[in-house]
Design a protein that fits this description.
Blueprint lengths: L3 H11 L3 H8 L5 H13 L8 H10 L15 H6 L1 H5 L5 H14 L9 H9 L5 H17 L9 H7 L9
Helix pairs in contact: 1-9, 7-9
């Protein structure tokens, strides 16, 4: 594949801060997913060694500021999807987006579960309070970073947690 610029945008979209990476890596059920992100980064030439230390260093160098992890005021996930043509520069239907996200996750060998239109609909109305919902957001932002590397880097995992009205409960 070797799309270094896309990979360099996709990884910080999923892990915009060291704290995001730390919270994710502390959960044993995320081990396979974390290993797959590290392997992807090494395969794409983003990091030289396929290890957590190199991956962490990449996140440290590319860490987003607090303001880059905050959504615009008066925006929630439902409104975000209504404005996706303006915000994402795409007019894909939800079904097409989920198909493209799932195809990218599979082709990049990222160990995240497939996402569904139903889950995106639920996230418009519910907080991202389970690991499955949060992994749906991770898949979404990975796709945004990879497919739209020129977009504002504020469209990252932490921003989307806030768009889902996430109250810091059980973050992983």
């Amino acid at each position: 594949m070797s799309n270094v610029s896309e990979a360099k945008a996709a990884i910080p979209a999923v892990f915009p801060t060291l704290e995001t990476l730390k919270n994710f890596s502390m959960k044993s059920y995320n081990t396979k997913a974390l290993d797959s992100f590290i392997s992807f980064a090494a395969t794409e030439g983003v990091i030289k060694q396929a290890d957590l230390e190199s991956f962490t260093q990449f996140i440290r160098i590319n860490e987003r500021s607090h303001s880059a992890c905050s959504p615009p005021k008066d925006l929630n996930l439902e409104e975000f999807f209504k404005r996706k043509k303006e915000l994402l520069k795409t007019n894909h239907s939800a079904r097409t987006m989920t198909d493209r996200i799932n195809a990218l996750i599979q082709s990049c060998k990222i160990e995240l579960p497939k996402i569904s239109n139903t889950m995106l609909t639920r996230l418009k109305k519910e907080p991202a309070d389970t690991s499955h919902k949060r992994n749906t957001l991770r898949s979404l932002v990975f796709w945004i970073g990879y497919e739209r590397p020129g977009l504002d880097p504020s469209w990252n995992y932490e921003t989307f947690l806030k768009l889902c009205n996430e109250v810091k409960q059980n973050v992983d």
